[in-house]
């Protein structure tokens, strides 16, 4: 193998992994541009190593790469209550390694076709899944991230504000999963907490929602933050005596 062939295969592996990573980065996933690019480069280098040394067991090296990526993918799979998150991210890392192995084997066009296929699955697989699961389109979409929207309003405005929240989270990319109401002791204000699921650029969407709600009469305060179930569980966990 010449130096230029080595560079060409490595460049294609890097480019394919980076292309997959860009789509993941735009959706604010755990494994984004750098992670997918490095996985593809690593897989490419491992297979190229066997070719450079004149070894004939490149297929066996590729099998080792698949096993190694399995351990890496297992690290991004998280359990969130009764749900499991990170399966799509782990599968994407596996695909990034696959296109890297394909590029290292010299099948550059096939590696690019594989990259396009992975991108198409990410782009059209989500809306297709929601189309089939019409009753609960957000239930199985692990890419959606939890957020909370807090606001206080006059008690007389509660019904109107609840209707606005339902209207603003229907038929779009913002899913309303729950709505809690708390009244203060003085009965002069009502606190509403909306549990939301969003994907992609959640910050701009939430800021737009906050801006619309801020213009409504009767609302005193409104703000949002990302929901962290693990941190909340630690915060509400019972304290133990260090001497126990």
TrEMBL record:
Keywords tagged on the record: Cell membrane, Membrane, Transmembrane, Transmembrane helix
Keyword Transmembrane helix set for record: yes
Cleavable signal peptide: none
Main subcellular localisation: membrane
Ranges annotated as spanning the membrane: 31-49, 61-79, 91-124
Domain MgtC/SapB/SrpB/YhiD N-terminal: 10-128
Membrane-protein topology: Multi-pass membrane protein
Family: Belongs to the MgtC/SapB family.
Protein name according to UniProt: MgtC/SapB family protein
Species per Swiss-Prot/TrEMBL record: Catenulispora pinistramenti
